[in-house]
Write a structure and sequence with these properties.
single chain, mainly alpha, de novo design (two linked rop proteins)
Length: 464
Amino acid sequence: MATGLIVLLIICLLLACTFEFVNGFHDTANAVATVIYTNSLKPTVAVVYSGILNFTGVMTGGIAVAMGIINLLPMEVLLDSNAYHGIAMVLALLISAIIWNLGTWFFGIPASSSHALIGSILGIGIAFYFLPNTNSEDVINWHKVKETGLALLISPLLGFSAAIIMMFIFKRLIKNEIIYKEPILGKKPPLWIRMILWTTCGLVSFFHGQNDGQKGVGLVMIILIAIIPGYFSINDKVNIQSINANIEHIQQLVSKADTSLLSDKQRYLYNDISIHTKHFREEAKGKYNSNEISTTIRFELRKDIVQITKACEKLISSGNLSLSYKELKTLKTEIKGAKTMVEYAPYWVIIMISVSLGLGTMVGWKRIVKTVGEKIGKQHMSYAQGASAELIAAGGIGLASAFGLPVSTTHMLSSGIAGSMVAKKGLKNLQKGTIINIALAWILTLPVTIILSCSLFLLFRALL
């Protein structure tokens, strides 16, 4: 690699760490607000505790959400022979997301880092519409965008309504009135209440690490694949012949299907599987690990795997693939096995993002904490309100991580706190000005980051 390219690669990696660092103090402030404003933990202890659990969450969270972020843009289409075009893409999306996150943090507005990142990625995709020789149908993975957008849209609604329900459950099960009263300044609550709040704060922090931390891992993988695809396109830990066996089995199963039941588009997918299977088989013949494959071919093998697995998944979801239940189940298993070659992240990437998120959690948290703790409701947050909001947030984020869906910690927790306030005295218990500011930030995040990243990408593309 040329020296200039190495420097730009390092800058991109530092920006990815910066995004995750900002994400740490921007989003995790939501988790510690409840324990701080209920006098359950001292601020310094709370942020260190949260930071450690964020770090642990990233380390144990897998890579399903990270792959969801990567798949928002079909990198195989966007990459070309000019590595500087990949750098222009990465710089634009990272700078856009960081600018929005820092801006909303400066004004103390809880806004979604997930929305900012996804908006920036979509902006890159839209920018490609303005470039020559671009197939507009291939620029953005709209199926994945729809899936991700739905998760982000539903999360605040679920957080709000579920927190109201949780408050009513608390009322039914816990008759001790102290849990529903405002904390006395400087006085610690009873130990059993503190233990509940410590647990809920820890769960939100841990699951935030599992979900949002993976987004950072996805970002770094986008950088590595875009700039040096020859080294990071495929997982060097897998046995090539093992993947070849998966591909062969996929081809055999798909070939059993009755093609007369398929539409023209589905027949194209069917034929695409055969073409890429043949290419993969030829290039992988006699090779057992990635070191035996030239760097110029590795990305082609990645593309084979991606095209085969995506085509199979589309055929399965269409319902027109005439295979038995057992054969479909086997096909899904083989697809999962083949994906291990391309859906991975080096351990050093996960550690780098874990450290960035954990350190970010421990600084800059006060602005968002003040908004969450004091400005959403007209009354001081009670112990029950803090616990209900965090239980709902932890559960929602945990489920999203399990299904590989990016979800907004900010949306889940802020809406949960709002719901807990409404459960006590109705809508009149919310501070109208704060709710409007948060709603505007949530509404504007996508369009602003889309426009910003689109503009920056076209600018950087012209300059680099």
